[in-house]
Amino acid sequence: MIPHHKGTLLALASAAGFATLPIFIKFSYAAGANTLTILTTRFILASIFLWLILYLRNINASVNKKIGIQLVLLGVVGYGAMSATFAASIQYLPASLSSMLLYLYPAIVSLLAIVLGDDQLNWRKFASLSICFSGLFFILGVSFTGVSTVGVICGITSAIIYSLYILAGNRLMKTVDSLVATTYVCTAAAITFILISLLTGEFIFTLPASGWLTLLAMSIFSTIVGILGVFAALPYIGPSNAAIISCAEPVLTVCMSISLLGEKITPPQLGGGLLILAGILFLQLWGGTKQSQQTTGAS
User: Fold this and answer.
1) Which residue has the higher pLDDT, 70 or 282?
2) What b-and-e string marks burial along 212-237, b requiring 16 or more CB atoms within 10 Å of the CB?
3) Which end of the chain is flanked by fewer CB atoms within 10 Å, N or C?
């Protein structure tokens, strides 16, 4: 398989994994869980599975102190601060607008990657990004009436934090195995949410079996597949391409919502989904850069 195509499939697998998160969250809330219980359980279970995989595959999980600290920060900042600011934005804004602000991150990643010398921008990649971002406006049904300044600041902050997370992950993937990195990130996030649970006492232990099964599925698909997929894709296609391809996530979420939750899709959402898919296809056929081709030899 062509390395660039392999990276694309990995990024799409990551998007599909993350796309299941809203579905599982809805099921979890219906089973009586709260946000802190969902996040804490999600990362505890994911960490246990990942450490077990490392053990069974006999993979050396040791990293030097500097890389270990960086991976811990990815877990705490990437999933702690980003989750907190995103949740805060939802308190002040419609969920669709909060999601749109979070999905500013492909543009932010591309700009920061160019400034830092991690990637190159050509007109094809710019066109692909523009097509994907236009599609997001349609699929998320954004309304800009009555916008809260505090909510907008929180939403943009979450996008910036996630952009830095993607770029930092791209640099770390050059020196550490993606599975090891994913394990450290999830473990750091788990410890963070465990501490918050202990301090607040808001963790719910009395969930029905359906609730725990939903959280288990969330830890596997929404966490392990999502995080591992994007980390594994970075050496093949670079951070900008990975971020652009991840715009498929809301398209997949809408499809799952229709099939699993019985939600309806509007014509603008359908048009937005087609635009995003067209942008990704454009990127794959004509948007490759020298940078992404050079990185394919990393693994």
Assistant:
1) 70
2) eebbbbbbbbbbbbbbbbbbbbbbbb
3) N
Angstrom CA distances, 73 to 61, 190, 197, stand at 17, 12, 19
Parse the chain into domains and list their residue ranges: 3-287
For helices 123-140 and 105-116, the axis angle rounded to 10 degrees is 160
> What is the pLDDT of the chain when averaged over all its residues?
79
| Residues 6+ positions from 174 with CB-CB distance below 8 Å | 235, 298
- Inform me whether the pLDDT recorded for 294 exceeds 60: no
pTM (whole model) above 0.90: no
| pLDDT per residue as tens digits for the range 23-60 | 888 888 889 988 889 889 988 998 998 898 889 889 88
What lies within 8 Å, CB to CB, of 54 at 6+ separation is 61, 179, 180, 183
- Supply 59's token pair: 């993979």
